[in-house]
Design goal:
The protein is mainly α. It has one domain. Helices cover 56% and strands 1% of the residues. α3 packs parallel to α6. The longest helix is centred in the first third of the chain and has 24 residues. It is globular and about 65 Å long. The chain starts with a helix and ends in a 6-residue tail after the last helix. 39% of the residues are buried.
Length: 373
C-alpha cells in the first residue's frame, strides 16, 4: 500500500471506526487485502472518459434518430446505463482525499456532474454514512428503514424516481440563485437541499469550509440551465426535445434510485449500530449476470465489502472479495452479506415490509426528525 492510500485508509477508519467488537476478524480481513488499496489513475480516467464519451455520442443518436425507432430506444437505454456508470464515480470521488486526482474531479464535474445536475460536492455527506454512530439512524442521509416499515414506505420511495430531475432543476435553477439574495433562504437551502440523500428527513447544514466550492458549481449549473432555457425560448430546442432530455435524465437517475434498494437490508429501528452490524446490514450482489453489471457498476455490487473497507478502489474489489471468501473462516459474518441477485435482495426487503404493520413502523423515528442538526 502506498503512503497516500495508507493515509486515506487511516482517515476513513477515523470516520468509520474499525470493527471494535471483532478486532481479530477485522485484522484478519485487512491482512488479506492489505496490498489492494492503491488507486490506478489510468483505470479511473479510461473508464470515466470512455463511459461518458460513448454516453454523449449515443445521446446525439437518441436525439437524431426517428421518433420511437429501435435505434432511438436502444440509444436511450445504453446511453442511460453508461451515464449511470460514469455518474457512479461520484462515489469514488467522495472517498478520495481532497488533494488526490484533483483534475479527475474537475473533468468529471464538467462531463457528468454539471450536465446531470449532480456536482460531486453535494455528495460530500456520504462519509457520514460510514460512521457507525450515524449509520442506520435518522441522521444517516442514505438510510431508510424500508424493511422494518409498512410496504407503503417502499412504494413512496419508488414513485419519487421520475421526479428526481425536477427536484434538481428547482434546486439549481431556482432555489440556488434566489438563495444568494436572501440569507434566510440560503440557510434553508444549505440545510435541507444541499446533500445527495435518499432520506427525506435528513437535515444538516452544509459545512462552511466547502461553501465556496458549492457556490461555484451552483453558478455553473445555473448557467447550464440558463443556456437551455434560452435555446428553448429561441425555438432552437423544442419542448419535445426538452422532454426527451428530461426522460433520459430521469431514467439515468432512476437506475441508481432503484439499485439503492439492494444496497442494504434496511431493517434497523434507528438505534446505533456497531461497525460489524453495519457490514452485516450491507449487501454484496455476487451473481455476475448482465443485469448485475448494468445495475451495479464501478464496484457497487460489493457494498458490504465497501463498508468493511471504504477506501478500497473499485477496480480492486473483485480481487478483494475473492480473497476474503477464500481466506475467511466459514462462519465469518462477511459471508452473510452475499446475495445471489438484485431481485433476491429486493424480494427480502419487500417480504419484510409486507409483514410490518403501521404500529411496528420504524419510519416513525425518521419522521420525528431524530438526529437533525
Amino acid at each position: 500500500m502506498n503512503a497516500t492510500a495508507l493515509s486515506h485508509e487511516t482517515a476513513a477508519a477515523a470516520d468509520s471506526p474499525a470493527v471494535a467488537d471483532e478486532p481479530t476478524s477485522q485484522d484478519g480481513a485487512r491482512k488479506l487485502v492489505a496490498d489492494l488499496f492503491s488507486r490506478s489513475a489510468a483505470i479511473y480516467w479510461t473508464d470515466m472518459l470512455l463511459s461518458s464519451g460513448v454516453a454523449w455520442a449515443l445521446t446525439a443518436v437518441y436525439f437524431a434518430a426517428p421518433a420511437w425507432s429501435a435505434v432511438q430506444m436502444a440509444a436511450f437505454v445504453v446511453a442511460a446505463v453508461l451515464f449511470f456508470r460514469a455518474g457512479t464515480f461520484i462515489h469514488e470521488i467522495a472517498h478520495m482525499p481532497g488533494s488526490q486526482m484533483v483534475w479527475f474531479k474537475r473533468v468529471w464535474n464538467l462531463l457528468v456532474g454539471i450536465p446531470l445536475l449532480m456536482p460531486w460536492i453535494v455528495y460530500r455527506n456520504h462519509i457520514e454514512h460510514h460512521n457507525h454512530t450515524q449509520f442506520g439512524t435518522p441522521a444517516d442521509g442514505e438510510y431508510l428503514p424500508l424493511a422494518s416499515s409498512p410496504l407503503i414506505e417502499t412504494l413512496k420511495y419508488m414513485v419519487q424516481a421520475p421526479l428526481l430531475p425536477l427536484f434538481m432543476l428547482v434546486r439549481f435553477g431556482v432555489l440556488g440563485p434566489l438563495s444568494w439574495l436572501h440569507g434566510g433562504l440560503r440557510v434553508w437551502v444549505l440545510t435541507r437541499a444541499s446533500a445527495a440523500v435518499s432520506n427525506p428527513y435528513y437535515s444538516k447544514r452544509f459545512p462552511k469550509r466547502d461553501e465556496a466550492n458549492l457556490r461555484i458549481v451552483e453558478a455553473l449549473c445555473f448557467v447550464y440551465l440558463a443556456v437551455i432555457a434560452t435555446l428553448l425560448w429561441q425555438d432552437t430546442v423544442s419542448a419535445w426535445q426538452l422532454l426527451m432530455g428530461y426522460s433520459l435524465l430521469a431514467f439515468t437517475l432512476g437506475l441508481n434510485w432503484f439499485r439503492n434498494l439492494a444496497a442494504h437490508i434496511y431493517a434497523n429501528d434507528g438505534s446505533r449500530m456497531t461497525m460489524a452490524e453495519q457490514v452485516a446490514d450491507s449487501i454484496n450482489i455476487t451473481g455476475q449476470t448482465w443485469l448485475t453489471v448494468a445495475l451495479f457498476p464501478v464496484g457497487l455490487r460489493y457494498h458490504a465489502l465497501h463498508h468493511l473497507f471504504p477506501a478500497l478502489p473499485y477496480h480492486r474489489m473483485g480481487e478483494a472479495h475473492r480473497r476474503l471468501m477464500a481466506g475467511l473462516p466459514a462462519d465469518a459474518p462477511y459471508r452473510v452479506s452475499n446475495h445471489a441477485s438484485f431481485f433476491a435482495a429486493v424480494r427480502e426487503l419487500w417480504q419484510s415490509a409486507s409483514r410490518t404493520s403501521p404500529q411496528q413502523s420504524s419510519m416513525r423515528a425518521w419522521s420525528r426528525g431524530a438526529g437533525r442538526s
